[in-house]
Design goal:
The protein has 499 residues and is α+β, with helices and mostly antiparallel strands. The protein contains 12 helices and 13 strands. Among the domains are: 50 residues; 91 residues, no CATH class; 173 residues. The longest helix has 86 residues.
Length: 499
């Protein structure tokens, strides 16, 4: 029964061991092929990683905003024009950093349209500032088409260069090569150049093409929505060149802002100078108009002028009253003299008239009257003497009337003159309120113009200082950083895929 059981049910453990051995032997047979594949994969990966073009990344950050920014709520128009109204829009700043105009400026400033390469059998490496050659372009005849020059067999004295289809020609350091595109001076970058059998190549490209290449590898983005920091990164085959591009980009971005502010300051200065000339001319005209008003015035202010003419008018009125009184006295005397009843009577003396000729004539007349009265008393019957005295009295009477007429006409002329003066004084006093109002208006305008002139002078000084000491609204937080570990090709991923 046991025998039957063993035949019916073979040993399970012995079959399992045999299967493992068979599987192991099957793989061991293919082990050389497996090892060969692994060696080929590892070797291929290493060869690919060694000779593939490395791509490095450099990073930098720019802070947007500054103390020179002016709030949009500022009501000072000149200050707004000088500093600009800052309303930070990160999207606008990003586009400015990506602009071709700015990138071309960076290319020109840094000479990034000239590149230096070391050519190998399989690949070439960008040397940048590690190249032993430093090319200085003296003159370019053609700025449209790119060109390249190959240098070989370099040593401390010089080497060979090849341009286009021309055969290699010797050169010495500091030689100026006169080629089809222009003149270029070849300088030695380092004091000593070691032996290097690999040729070096200089490539020149247009500023526009170089800027397009940089823009294609440049990444600009906002660090976060809560900050005004812009993050920049760029890809390049040389990490030092990439870092220099970012550093110069940040510097030129800030410098462009400063230049814009200086340009605004210069334009503002020009505007202020024009306004100062206009305001100065307005002040000169106001002073001229004020002088024209004061030329009709005896005094500097209308109040003193009005008081002066009021006093003059009062004095003339007093003299006019005196002239009227004196004229009335003369008329009384004239009527008295003309009355025949008073032919041989004395004439009262006009003491207030103050005319010596009239007083003398009346005095002689009164003396003759006294002589007649005396003669009539002493010789009443002597007609000859009385007749002679009376004739003299008649003549003197006529002279008195003539003198009275002359004095009356003189007083009439005085009255006319005084009336004319009063009319003139009235006219002057009537003009004073209008002139005073005009003077006040000119004074008000002058005060406004003077305040404007002083304000413009102050702003001119501020603008002149700002033009010299302008500070950018942008600042690079840190210099560009980079890693010597390339981001392409990705070594870890490629090796993982290979295995």
């Amino acid at each position: 029964m046991n025998q039957f059981s063993q035949e019916q049910f073979p040993d399970i453990n012995s079959g399992s061991n045999k299967s493992i051995r068979e599987n192991l032997l099957r793989y061991l047979v293919n082990l050389p092929l497996f090892i060969l594949c692994m060696v080929l994969c590892v070797g291929g990966v290493n060869i690919f990683l060694r000779y593939s073009n490395k791509v490095y990344q450099a990073n930098s950050q720019i802070l947007v905003g500054g103390s020179n920014a002016v709030s949009a709520n500022s009501s000072d128009l000149v200050t707004q024009g000088l500093y600009g109204v800052r309303s930070i829009n990160i999207d606008n700043e990003l586009e400015l950093l990506r602009s071709k105009k700015l990138i071309e400026r960076v290319v020109r400033k840094g000479g990034f349209n000239i590149r230096y390469f070391n050519e190998g059998t399989i690949r070439r490496m960008e040397m940048y500032q590690l190249s032993p050659i430093n090319a200085e372009i003296i003159q370019l005849k053609d700025t449209i088409y790119p060109w390249s020059i190959k240098f070989s067999e370099l040593d401390n004295r010089g080497g060979l260069f090849t341009y286009g289809k021309l055969s290699a020609k010797p050169f010495k350091w500091n030689d100026t090569l006169n080629l089809a595109f222009g003149k270029i001076n070849i300088k030695k970058r380092f004091s000593t150049i070691g032996e290097n059998g690999k040729p070096h190549v200089i490539e020149w490209n247009t500023v526009s093409s170089a800027a397009d290449e940089i823009r294609g590898s440049l990444s600009v983005r906002s660090l976060s929505a809560r900050t005004t920091i812009i993050s920049l990164s760029i890809l390049s085959s040389n990490p030092t060149r990439a870092a220099d591009i970012l550093n110069l980009l940040g510097y030129e971005f800030a410098e462009q802002d400063v230049e814009l502010k200086r340009e605004i300051s210069v334009n503002t200065l020009r505007f202020i100078d024009d306004r100062l000339r206009v305001v100065s001319e307005d002040l000169r005209k106001l002073d001229s108009n004020k002088i024209g008003i004061h030329s009709d015035f005896r005094f500097l202010d209308a109040g003193s002028e009005l008081l002066y003419y009021q006093n003059k008018y009062g004095q003339t009125e007093n003299r006019l009253d005196e002239a009227f009184i004196d004229t009335a006295v003369i008329r009384l005397i004239e009527d008295y003299v003309k009355d025949d009843r008073n032919r041989f009577k004395k004439i009262f003396s006009p003491l207030g008239l103050g005319d010596p000729s009239l007083s003398a004539t009346i005095g002689k007349y009164n003396e003759l009257v006294a002589d007649r009265d005396k003669a009539a008393f002493e010789n009443p019957n002597d007609n000859i003497i009385m007749s002679s005295i009376e004739n003299n009295l008649e003549n003197m009477r006529a002279n008195v009337l003539i003198s009275l007429g002359n004095v009356k006409r003189a007083y009439g002329l005085k009255i006319q003159i005084f009336n004319e003066r009063n009319n003139e004084y009235n006219a002057k006093m009537g003009e004073i309120p209008d002139k005073n109002a005009l003077e006040l208006e000119l004074k008000k305008q002058k005060e406004l113009k003077e305040r404007l002139y002083l304000y413009l002078l102050q702003k001119r000084e501020e603008t002149a200082i700002a033009a010299i000491s302008s500070k950018s609204n942008y600042s690079t937080i840190d210099s560009a950083s980079y890693s010597m570990v390339p981001i392409e090709p990705k070594e870890s991923q490629i090796k993982t895929f290979a295995f």
